[in-house]
């Protein structure tokens, strides 16, 4: 949908919308301000708007963290361009943020509203996504890839996954250094190839946040470190 033609984007959007039309049901357990049995449908514009906004925000953050800075005008231009995708997926035009100020205001408002919570189902899904059972010998490589991804999550989201506080890092200096090195090395690689930015202290902070999330999701992996 990003690099294809308008016709290809419209065709893919119809396919996604058809899949979304089959996703509906009721909450099996309370989720924040929503009681059990609250109905949900994937075509709900408010749900679609949250997904769209977090994807756009994450794209911008990942690019500026690992590739390089972009101007405010370029940020706003990106938001405006990808708003067309949101409209194709059923989000009303007046819902979709078309600049970064509106985008951030919306995300901040949602995080403060109490509607965004991490449920047990979300924790289970995060575990399956980050540690699929069929990885085998590729598991260490995948682990190095997902640490920088987790590291750019907002602190509130990282805490929401149940990750423990900073005190749990005491006594695990070897693994902590490895987590920091994963993010740091990614930035060094991008910098050396001319496609990324040089690493900084902020990248080490992001890696440590990723380590805290990983410790909660896979505590047994760290027992011997």
Mean pLDDT: 74
Count of individual beta strands:
2
Which percent range fits the helix content?
Answer: 55-70%
Helix-strand string: HEEHHHHHHHH
How far from one another are the termini?
Answer: 43 Å
Specify the structural class.
mainly alpha
Radius of gyration: 19 Å
Summed up, the helix count is 9
User: Which band does the percent of strand residues land in?
Assistant: under 5%
What general form does the structure show? globular
Strand order of the largest sheet: 1-2
Low-confidence stretches: 161-181
Note the main sheet. Answer: 2 strands, antiparallel
Give the number of domains. 2
Quick description:
This protein is an all-alpha fold and 225 residues long. The protein has helices at residues 6-20, 45-66, 72-88, 100-113, 120-130, 139-151, 155-160, 173-192, 201-217, and strands at residues 24-26, 39-41. It has two domains: 6-113, no CATH class; 120-222, no CATH class.
Structure write-up:
Helix 8 crosses helix 9. It is built from nine helices and two strands; from the N terminus they run H-E-E-H-H-H-H-H-H-H-H. The chain has helices spanning 6-20, 45-66, 72-88, 100-113, 120-130, 139-151, 155-160, 173-192, 201-217; strands at residues 24-26, 39-41. Helices cover 60% and strands 3% of the residues. Strands 1-2 form a two-stranded antiparallel ribbon. The protein has two domains: 6-113, no CATH class; 120-222, no CATH class. The chain is globular, with a radius of gyration of 19 Å. It has 225 residues and is mostly helical.
């Amino acid at each position: 949908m990003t690099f294809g033609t308008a016709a290809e984007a419209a065709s893919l959007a119809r396919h996604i919308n058809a899949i979304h039309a089959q996703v509906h049901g009721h909450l099996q357990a309370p989720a924040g301000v929503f009681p059990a049995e609250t109905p949900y449908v994937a075509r709900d514009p408010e749900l679609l708007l949250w997904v769209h906004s977090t994807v756009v925000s994450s794209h911008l953050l990942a690019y500026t963290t690992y590739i390089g800075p972009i101007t405010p005008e370029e940020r706003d231009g990106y938001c405006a361009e990808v708003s067309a995708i949101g409209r194709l997926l059923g989000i009303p035009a007046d819902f979709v943020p078309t600049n970064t100020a509106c985008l951030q205001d919306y995300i901040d408002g949602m995080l403060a509203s109490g509607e965004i919570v991490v449920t047990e189902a979300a924790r289970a899904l995060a575990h399956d996504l980050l540690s699929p059972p069929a990885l085998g010998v590729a598991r260490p490589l995948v682990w190095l890839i997902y640490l920088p991804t987790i590291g750019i999550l907002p602190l509130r989201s990282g805490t929401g996954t149940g990750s423990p506080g900073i005190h749990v890092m005491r006594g695990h200096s070897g693994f902590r250094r490895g987590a920091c090195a994963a993010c740091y090395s990614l930035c060094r690689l991008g910098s050396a190839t001319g496609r990324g930015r040089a690493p900084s202290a902020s990248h080490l902070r992001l890696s440590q946040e990723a380590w805290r999330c990983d410790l909660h999701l896979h505590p047994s992996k760290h027992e011997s470190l």
